[in-house]
Amino acid sequence: MHDLLNDLAQQIAGEFTFKLEDESLPLNPERVRHLSCIPNRDEAPDKFEAFYEVFNRLRTFLPLRSSPNSSRVPLTPIISNSLFPGSDDKRNSDDRRRNLLTETDDRKKTLFPESSRLRVLSLSPYHITNLPESIGNLKHLRYLDLSHTEIRSLHDRVCSLYNLETLKLSSCFQLTQLPQDMRNLTKLEHLDIKGSKVKEMPPQFGNLRSLQSLTTFVVSTNTSASRISELKKLSLLRGTLSIEGLQNVFQTADASVANLEGKKYLDELIFQWAPGTHLAHYETEVLDKLRPHEYLKKLRIRHFGGSKLPDWLGDAIFSQMVSLHLVDCENCSSLPPLGQLPCLQELYIVRMRRLRCVGSEFYGSNLKPFRSLEILQFETMPYWQEWLPSSNEGGFPSLQELTVYNCSKLAGNLPNHLPSLVKLHIIECRKLKFFHPNGRNQYSKLEHLHIRSSCCDLETFSLDCFTRLVKLKLQGCIFLRSIELQSEHEHLTFLRKLKIEDCPILEIFSGRGLLSLQKLKISGCSNLSSFGEAGLPTNLQSFCFEQCRRLPPRDAWGLQNMASLIFFEFDGVKYHEE
């Protein structure tokens, strides 16, 4: 189907579109209007010479990168000289001799002369560090892509490209400043500076009223740069907008003037302060005035220094919000009623270091809080001690993935009603209890379980509770003594992979009932001395034992009963079965 569509596209494009590959040339170069190629370091210097006579009529020059990670290619003399005539006066004599397009009358041929009709230009695959003054000659240019280049600055003549609609500068890691007269590009609709080092927005940025996509707006301390209030005029913005440098909003009224609540087309907002520059009360006011419109789908807040998140954050009026990230809000000691967000599917709370208790304020007043939540992650909460359950059994009905990471003081149990949970990761939470007293069916749908350096009271791991488990990883459970199916009539028909590491007092691992287990790894279990009466699971395809010095002798492993065994490894030595 792909080949058919490609053939159809080529047929429609006809002679007007050509992709220059290897030594191929079009039958009628003079009819080509849209040219693309994949640059490489070994291409011939005269690769484009056949197109010289028709470049004045070219509309598109679109080099393509061979892969996202491909290295930049130096501009060949013909491209450099043709794109930017007269811009290389400082080139040494050797370079001039290598330029195959220098004519005997010293007048340089140009691929794109001043009267060029070029609409689309990409230099993204090339190694360039600056643009010459002659970039301003491309008066009809609509699309300019300099992304992933090492460009350090944009010449002010870029601001004379009055027809420019798209400017791509993503991942220009050397670029720190935009041209001061950028306000003149009144037709600009798309500006991508994501991943650049731009430190401020040029003055009167709000004049770009045609902007529909703006990846990043940077607030700075420079009084001549645009303040956040300039966003007020950009009413057509859509997609994702990241606002950085919010610690530099010195007048809280500016945040209100920005009128994010009126930008109905934005899907995602990212609010970002610089780390370690906190004026708690001031930042709380700023964030409160940055209230977005009620149809926002995704929100990320990073390095917020206030002591309290805004009341609007848990407002049920945000009926379409599906993703929320709260990262490095270190001074916040409580959470807003996020359980009231009816469509929230992903919630990440990371490094909220002053939070001590998650309780009723987290769930809100809904009878069924977090009714749509599928992914929940708590990470690095060093003072979090208690996770209280919802006042009713209706919380987290849709939760599929739960991660609790590096919460060393969290004690007690996880919520006991997680009917849809599929993946559970408990990492570096030593005081947390894993098995709930009344939670026999708590994990009836669990497929992936990872416990690492957690749940120190865990002595016996009963597999009976995990009838649908596919992958189990137990690491650093220092008081774990046994892992087994306690019921003689139970079978785990889904468990395929099992890894047990650094459980120093583990004595017994029984393979009874593990009929589907294919891969087994046990390491750092120096006290393991028995596989129980059933021995190792008989359907293993591979297993590995490392640093388990008390294992029974190999002839007691039952290798003769493992018809599916391909290989096994013992203390770094691999053995392949015939």
TrEMBL record:
<dbReference type="InterPro" id="IPR001611">
    <property type="entry name" value="Leu-rich_rpt"/>
</dbReference>
<feature type="domain" description="R13L1/DRL21-like LRR repeat region">
    <location>
        <begin position="228"/>
        <end position="352"/>
    </location>
</feature>
<dbReference type="Pfam" id="PF25019">
    <property type="entry name" value="LRR_R13L1-DRL21"/>
</dbReference>
<keyword id="KW-0433">Leucine-rich repeat</keyword>
<dbReference type="InterPro" id="IPR003591">
    <property type="entry name" value="Leu-rich_rpt_typical-subtyp"/>
</dbReference>
<dbReference type="InterPro" id="IPR032675">
    <property type="entry name" value="LRR_dom_sf"/>
</dbReference>
<keyword id="KW-0677">Repeat</keyword>
<protein>
    <submittedName>
        <fullName>Disease resistance protein At3g14460</fullName>
    </submittedName>
</protein>
<dbReference type="Pfam" id="PF13855">
    <property type="entry name" value="LRR_8"/>
</dbReference>
<dbReference type="InterPro" id="IPR056789">
    <property type="entry name" value="LRR_R13L1-DRL21"/>
</dbReference>
